[in-house]
Amino acid sequence: MNPIQHFHRRSIDDRDAFWTAESAAIHWHKPFEQVLDFSKPPFAKWFVGGETNLCFNAVDRWVDSRGGERALIWVSTEVDQEIIYTYRDLYREVNTVAAMLASQGVGRGDRVLIYMPMIPEAVFTMLACARLGAVHSVVFGGFASVNLAQRIDDAQPKVIVTADAGSRAGKVTPYKPLLDKAIALSTQPPAQVIIVDRGLYAFEPVVGRDLDYRELHHTHDKAEIAPVWLESSAPSYILYTSGTTGKPKGVQRDTGGYAVALASSMKGVFNGKAGETFLCTSDIGWVVGHSYIVYGPLIGGQATILYEGTPIRPDGGILWSLVERFSVNTMFSAPTAIRVLKKQDPALLKKYDLSSLRSLYLAGEPLDEPTAEWIAAGLGKPIIDNYWQTETGWTILAAQPGVADVATKFGSPSFPVYGFDVRVIDEQTGEDLGPNQKGVVAIAPPLPPGAMSTIWGDDERFVETYFNSIPNRQVYSTFDWGLFDEDGYFFILGRTDDVINVAGHRLGTREIEESINNHPSVAECAVVGIADQLKGQVAVAFAVLKDPRVLDEPGADLKLEGAIMKIVDEQLGAVARPARVRFVTTLPKTRSGKVLRRAIVAVCEGRDPGDLTTIEDPSALEQIKDSL
Ligand code: AMP
Question: Which of 33-42, 357-366, 619-628 is modeled with the greatest confidence?
Fold first, then answer.
């Protein structure tokens, strides 16, 4: 056993003592009475009876000792602006926004939906919710109205906080009309909408509903709002994620367990300490943004950089220039961003002083070896591939330089992180597999602190979805295939379900199919994820038309393809748009009527489709091939 594996073993075998020690990394208003209540498996309640507050741990705790130090650095290459907030500034802003929300009746347990671009107000609002004991639900800015309406109805927020618009690569996306449409579609509209007017998009406020952020800010400028102490298991936030069905799952996170997990990971996984600077290029709409743009670095007393912009504007050196200017110690990004940078001038990697940078963490999708090698050589720094999910809230697998220095292997996100009892399981028998055997990557419960506590409002679905998919035992399925080698290094080998990963964004193929089926000409369709050099995967759709004669006119197929793409854009957003829509008269299915997605993917990627004994009509696969 290497020292990381040894540390990990202790977290499982001597769980209570291990997490009692880790829990000292945060402030508890009231100490907990029990480390773990696992009396109703698979539900795990961590630090029972303890009271704490995420905002206090992220902000107040540092005001005395490092009030004048940088807490939040906002850089926007979209609107060419930059603001640095010290911990004291952040404290002021968060108190003001908490007072603004409280003035609209927001209190303990109420939901606030945040639909915002990467601007400081979004971070203030998240922290203000935490301060009030309210539950935030951040929805990725620019998400389509239908998506947004589903999330509004599920979370039933009292207030929505938004902005007039976001901007990406210099192109403005107005958020306000998307939100108005979502509210019109929703059955649970919020009472109030607070809008940050950035002056990017002119709009008419809805009288009686829409409030101006700056006006409210002015009214509550000097407010002080005491943090609301929450029992450790009280929900801190909901974050929706895609699965195999059309209905998104609201991943619910607790308070105390999350705070401890993040504080602990800042040391163990990221090897950092208070006073350092963290750059995470994710978005606050994703789990990585929640954990390592907002809460993790601040709970760890670090400065965090909130970057609004792309990695290649004004040029491909922008991220490295941030590292130099702000002396970034830890950087966290996604393989897709690195693949984009790979197309830029390699000299940009050498143009800046990167001496402050310890390592680059990459997560969200498989890190292919050529990309890993390219960036490792270019930076001359360790590249740490780490594997996790929205559900787990922090890292399941990673090298953990704060625990011990152990060599990494290309293609492997290394070892289980302490607290995660990771197994590779035979999906037929439910038995544990040994080294070099491919199976489902699973986690034996209890899930560690910081992982999801349930699906918002649906305990049954939580158990059904995650814990009942493997026969003969109750384990959490990640729905990823994987294996570990003889040295214990893990390798992730792709999803077991119909979820695809486009440029680090997780999409259910079912969601895309459901949206395409809305087109009046479409009878049925199949969407698959096809390997793509840049984005990892792209969606490709095969549609069967109700009446194929609509394609008789010249150019009709292109027109219909465009119309279908537009529907997906409107309902799910541009990330979900299929790269191609092809028309066939039948889909390859098994005799029991299940679409043979894996065979379609193989044909599209030019591989052998494998065993086709169950196929109903082999000519259907020929059609797929011909249509490409
Ligand atoms: P999300 O919840 O959107 O973060 O997506 C989680 C999924 O992304 C995982 O179940 C994996 O399929 C994939 N994923 C995340 N990190 C990695 C990684 N380092 N290597 C391979 N796949 C990853």
Answer: 33-42
Rounded CA separation 341/545 (Å): 40
What percentage of the chain carries pLDDT values higher than 70?
A: 99
Give distance in angstroms: CA of 363 to centre of ligand 1.
7
Between the alpha carbon of residue 396 and those of residues 77, 116, 391, 500, 507, the distances in Å are 33, 28, 10, 19, 20
pLDDT attached to residue 598? 83
Take atom 15 of ligand 1 and give the residue whose Cα is closest. 364
Span 128-176, pLDDT tens digits: 999 999 999 999 998 889 889 999 999 999 999 999 999 999 999 999 9
CA separation for the pair 503, 501 (Å, rounded): 6
CA 328 to centroid of chain Cα atoms: 22
Residue 354: CB atoms within 10 Å: 19
Tokens 């044909």 belong to residue: 603
Q: Is 495 in the pocket of ligand 1 (CB under 6 A)?
A: yes
Ranges 27-31, 191-195, 266-270, 612-616: which has the least confidence: 612-616
Which among 515, 521, 600, 509 is positioned nearest to 559, based on CA atoms? Answer: 521
Q: Note the pTM of the prediction, 2 decimals.
A: 0.89
Domains of the chain: residue spans and CATH: 3-309+386-480 (3.40.50.12780), 498-627 (3.30.300.30)
- Distance in Å, CA 61 to ligand 1 centroid: 33
- Cα dihedral across residues 570, 575, 579, 585: positive or negative: negative
Probe ligand 1: pick from 501, 507, 535, max atoms within 8 Å of CB? 501
Q: What is the C-alpha to C-alpha distance for residues 449 and 452, in angstroms, rounded to an integer?
A: 9
Residue with CA closest to ligand 1 atom 20: 366
pLDDT category at 513 given cuts 50, 70, 90 is: confident
DSSP string, 188-241: S--SEEEEE--SSS--PPPTTTEEEHHHHHHHTTT---PPPPEETTS--EEEEE
Find out whether the beta carbon of 51 lies less than 6 Å from any atom of ligand 1: no
Q: Measured in angstroms, how far is the CA atom of residue 527 from the centroid of ligand 1?
A: 20
Ligand 1 centroid from CA 597, angstroms = 20
